[in-house]
Amino acid sequence: MSTPWRTLDPRTPLVHCAWLGAPLGSLALTALATGGRLDTRAWITLGVVAAVFACVTTAGLITWRRTRYRVTADSFELRTGLFTRRLRAIPLHRVRNVDLTANPVQRLLGLAVLRAGTGGHGGELSLEALARPDAVRLRAELLARAGARDAAEPLLAAADLRRLRYAPLTFWVFGGVLAAAGAVWRVLDGIGVEPWRIGLVRHAFEEFGRSALWLTVPFALLAVTLLGVVGAVALYAENWWNYRLEWADADTLRVRRGMFTTRSVSIERARLRGVTLREPLLLRAGGGASVRAVAGGLGNREENRRRSVVLPPAPRAEAVRVCAGVLGEAEGPLGGPLGRSGEDGAADGLRPHPRAALRRRVVRALAWAVPLPTAALAVLGWLLTPVLLYCAAGYALLAAPVAYGLARDAYRGLGHGVRGRHLVVRSGTFGRETTVLERRAVQAWTFTDTPFGRRAGLVTATAAVAGGEDGYRIRDMSADDAAAFADAATPGILAEFIVPPVPR
Amino acid sequence: MAAHRHHPQAGLRPPRHAVDPRARRWWTVQALLTLSGPLLLTAVALLVLALLFFPGALPWLGPLLLVVLVLPALGYLLVMPRLRYRVHAWELGESSVYTASGWYRQRRRIAPLSRVQTVDTTRGPLQQAFGLATVTVTTASTAGAVRIAGLSDADARLLAERVADAARLIPGDAS
Question: Which keywords describe this protein according to UniProt (chain B) (predicted)?
Fold first, then answer.
């Protein structure tokens, strides 16, 4: 007897109506802005919208009608296609992760999209969309067949409102305001409204020009910052609402999060190679950190970066604890002395890098940050106004110590070491990352150097793993120690090529 | 396949076998096609244009073209293949495959045979003309693929076979 085929939820095609919102909304705005008179352009837009809507809805209806799925005794099968019928099947024991997602419209309709992946490239089936209870049941059914066991201590971290205070310490404070402004501008431009023609806007700009600039410019900056903070907090809340990081069973790490769009990512333990503790400059200054899993089977590099985040910006101590939990160790490789903020390179147990690495960073920072902008300002000042000459001098005086400080910080951040069954690598100043890799996950070693590096006795060693960024670099380590360190971290790979130390 | 005259780098001795000497000519032609050729052509075209239309510009344009286009093009054409030939080398060890490559930025890569997933041999049209081949040994990590360019056909065939055999014999998880 064969298992009957099941269909997608009948509400699925309704979701396609949602995208009508944006064009119709903008048309309504146009109508408002022009006082109800729609020009030819608007009518053409309306016609195109109607035509596209008809096509999309038809396509959606056909897809919905022609898609069938079923779970047989040993495989998960999906049949699709109108003219070319396509049958895809994944063996149940190969199913590695089952994710449920829903965009706001799907949530409103009580639908969810189910994705079942095998962890390999392209081995993914997705059902768009099922009624949420059905989707949850199907996921349980699929995962149950994968022969899962329960984890000893499942919950690693859950949502915590107090973490919202780290939201303003992200890039989105200013980047978000710029992105939002750009989007508004494009929408207005798209529907034929020229913002500078609107009386209110022009009036505001004229007033701004006439006002006392020393007062209004800082005020405007403050307003933009406040707007950015609000935006960043909102974004953080949307992304990390109902956040839960847990071992769904002994072999599956699962992250669930999201307010309007719910996301759920499952990572198989066998594909987990390690974790990365991320401390961008601002977040580090605020004592925070976020955590990313180094894992394979999460899609391409871009998708991997998006899906591998297991802890949003949070207090550093908590991040360190989550790292240990993900690695499945009570006292993680980041615990102990490294659990402190790790400002002093030597005290945290990681090997510092040679002084030549510091020289390199200082020279680079000073060479890139100081001369060019100073020269540009000076030339402009010479051509236009002497005020810029003072600016050039001021910039040089200010930028040199800042660049030097950042270079020193970058050097202090460098470190590598072996902790139990893990390899620990740390680098970066703007985006400091401490990566913990399982030693036996290392697939290959690469040593890279340039003539300058060779003269300074520096080499960059790269550990290759299958997952995350694929290659993790130990930048500018001592050339004399590199091979010995790699050999100690991963015995057996390169021992036969090492030259015995020559007595001097 | 002479032993390599090269200082140890990063505590590693260089791989035992040099690539085929014909690789030098292959790299020279590559340099001509990709960088040096276009640069020299640009220089010639600009000079001809200047001769025809702006003879007055020659006194400063000539030296400028020489420094910006001609010298870098010739330098790359003459230096890169030689340096590459000195650096490029390979060795199939007991448990790992080991390569050195690059000319300015030099790279040594070691991948254990137990992690080998595939062994590919490729011959581009230029390589075919010179009787050369490239062997690529892939692992599950894109940062772990070992690529040996400029082998003679015979060496490439032998190496591909031996890597495949060794990878079969040495147990390991190729994940």
Answer: Membrane, Transmembrane, Transmembrane helix
Other CB atoms within a 10 A radius of the CB of residue A178 amount to 12
- Looking at chain B from residue 46 to 75, which residues have their Cβ under 8 Å from any Cβ of chain A? none
How would you list the strands of the sheet with B17-18, edge to edge?
A471-478, A458-464, A444-449, B106-112, B96-101, B89-92, B17-18
Domain ranges (residues) in chain A: 6-145, 355-411
**pLDDT tens readout for residues A110-156:** 888 888 876 555 567 888 888 989 898 888 888 777 655 555 567 88
Q: Which residue has the tokens 């806007």?
A: A201
Task: Determine the distance in angstroms separating the CA of A296 from the nearest CA of chain B, rounded to an integer.
Answer: 9
Q: Does B111 touch chain A (CB under 8 A)?
A: yes
CB pairs A-B closer than 8 Å: 116
B15/A contact by beta carbon, under 8 A: yes
CA distances from A32 to A18, A26, A195, A231, A442 (A): 22, 10, 14, 27, 61
Q: Mind telling me how many Å the CA of A273 is from chain B's nearest CA?
A: 11
What span, in angstroms and rounded, lies between the C-alpha atoms of B7 and B4? 9
The total of other beta-carbon atoms located within 10 Å of residue A192's CB is 14
CATH architecture of A6-145: Roll (2.30)
pLDDT, tens digit (0-9, with 9 covering 90-100), for B48-97: 999 999 888 888 998 999 999 999 999 999 999 999 999 999 999 888 99
Cα distances from A207 to residues A196, A211, A225, A239, in angstroms, run 14, 6, 21, 38
Tell me which DSSP letter residue B100 carries.
E
Instruction: Give me the DSSP letters along A409-429.
Output: HHHHH-EEEEETTEEEEEE-S
Task: Quote the CA–CA distance of B159 and B152 in Å, as a whole number.
Answer: 10
What is the reported pLDDT for A427?
A: 92
- Decide if B12 and A498 are in contact by the 8 Å CB cutoff: yes
Is B112 in Cβ contact with A483 (below 8 Å)? no
Query: Token digits for B140?
Result: 């599950």
Cα separation, B113 vs B94, in Å, equals 9
User: How many angstroms separate the Cα of B44 from the Cα of each of A503, B50, B51, B52, B74?
Assistant: 56, 10, 10, 12, 14
CB-closest option in B9, B94, B107 to A496:
B94
Which A positions 277-296 lie with beta carbon below 8 A of chain B? Answer: 296
Contact of A500 with chain B, judged by CB distance below 8 Å, is answered with no
CATH superfamily of B89-169: FACT complex subunit Spt16p/Cdc68p (2.30.29.210)
Contact B11 A492 (CB under 8 A): no
Whether residue A492 lies within 8 A of chain B, CB to CB, comes out as yes
Strand extents, DSSP E, A109-243: 111-117, 124-131, 155-158
Low pLDDT (below 70) residues in chain A: 1, 36-38, 96, 118-123, 146-153, 172, 195-196, 330-348, 501-504
Please name the residue of chain B whose CA is at the shortest distance from the CA of residue A273.
B175
Q: What is the DSSP secondary structure assignment for residue A162, as one 8-state letter?
A: G
Chain A residues with beta carbon closer than 8 angstroms to that of B105: 448-450
Q: List the single residue in B with minimal CA-CA distance to A498.
A: B12
Q: What is the domain partition of chain B in residue ranges?
A: 23-84, 89-169
Element (H, E) at A184: helix A172-190
Q: Note the pLDDT tens digit of each residue in A47-76.
A: 888 888 888 888 888 888 888 898 888 888
Contacts of B102 in chain A (CB under 8 A): 448
CB A459 to CB B10 under 8 A?
Answer: yes
What DSSP element (H or E) covers A305? helix A301-307
